[in-house]
Amino acid sequence: MVSAVPDRRLNLAQQLVLDLSRRILAGELPAGTKLPTEQVITQERGVSRTVVREALSRLQAEGLVETRRGIGTFVVDTIRPGDFQGSQDEKGGAYDAVAIIELRLSLEVEAAAIAAQCASPSQLLAMRAALDEAHALDLLGEQSTGLDFEFHLQIAQCTANSFFVDAMTHLGSMLVSAAQQTTPAVTEQLRSLQVREREQIYAAVARQDVEAARAAMRLHLTNCLQRARSVVQSTAEGGIDGIQAYIGSVDPDS
User: What UniProt keywords apply to this chain's record, in alphabetical order (predicted)?
Assistant: First the structure.
C-alpha cells in the first residue's frame, strides 16, 4: 500500500478552498458578497495568514473571487457569457457536458484509487456526511447535485494532490452552476441508481480496496457519460428542455 504524508500547510489551504468554494457554488455566498478579512479568517479558522492567502489565491485563480485593492475580496458571478454554465445553446452545452465527463473519467477513476490508499478517518467522515445529505435531498425529490459534487471533491482531497483538487474545483464551478439553472426530471429509479453508485464508491474507498474503487468510479462516470450522450442525441432531435438530466444518473433499462 502506498502511503502519503501531505504537507500540513497545503492541506489546511486545501480545506479552506474546499469549504469556501462549496459555499460559493451552493449559493450560500452569492455574487457580490465580501469575504471576511485575512485577520478574521485567521482567527476563526486557527490558521496562519499564509494559509489564508494561499487559499484566496486559489479561489481567485478559479474565478470564484476577486480582490479589489484597498477594499477586500468579493465573490464573483460564476455564470459568465461564453462559459459552459452560461451557454444559451442547449446543443452546445450538452456536447460540453459529454467532454467534461470524458475528462472526469480520466481524472476521477485514479483519484478514487488513490483515495482508497490514503483516506483518513476524518476524510471518510466528511465523505459520509456529504453522501447522507445528498441522499436526504434525493428522498425529498430536491436537487442534490451540489452535495454529490462535494462528495467527489472530498475524494480528490483524499489524494493529498493539489492538482486533483484544483481541477475538480474548476469543474464544479461549471457543473453545479449548470445544475442550478435547470430542473431535472429524474425518476425514482434513477435516484435509486445514483444512490447505489455513490455507496459503492464510498464502500470501496472505506475498505481500502483500490481496484474496487477504480471500478466503482468508472461505472458511475460511464453511466453519466451514457446519459450525457443520450441528451446530445435528444437535443439534436429537439426533445430536450435542458442538459441537467444527465448528471449522476442513467436509465437502468438502457
Answer: DNA-binding, Transcription, Transcription regulation
**Band (95; pLDDT cuts 50, 70, 90):** low
Residue 232 — very low, low, confident or very high, per pLDDT cuts 50/70/90? low
How many Å apart are CA 150 and CA 20, to the nearest integer? 12
The total of other beta-carbon atoms located within 10 Å of residue 50's CB is 13
**Domain 91-250: which CATH class?**
mainly alpha
- Choose among 12, 3, 14, 31: nearest CA to 115: 3
Residue 189, Cα to own-chain centre: how many angstroms? 23
Three cell numbers at 34? 465580501
Class of the CATH-defined domain 12-75:
mainly alpha
pTM of the shown model: 0.63
CB 205 within 8 A of CB 120: no
What values do phi and psi take at 243, rounded to 5?
A: -105, -10
Distance CA 66, CA 61 (A): 9
Q: What does R_g of the chain's alpha carbons equal in angstroms?
A: 18
Give me the phi and psi of 148, to 5 degrees please: -60, -40
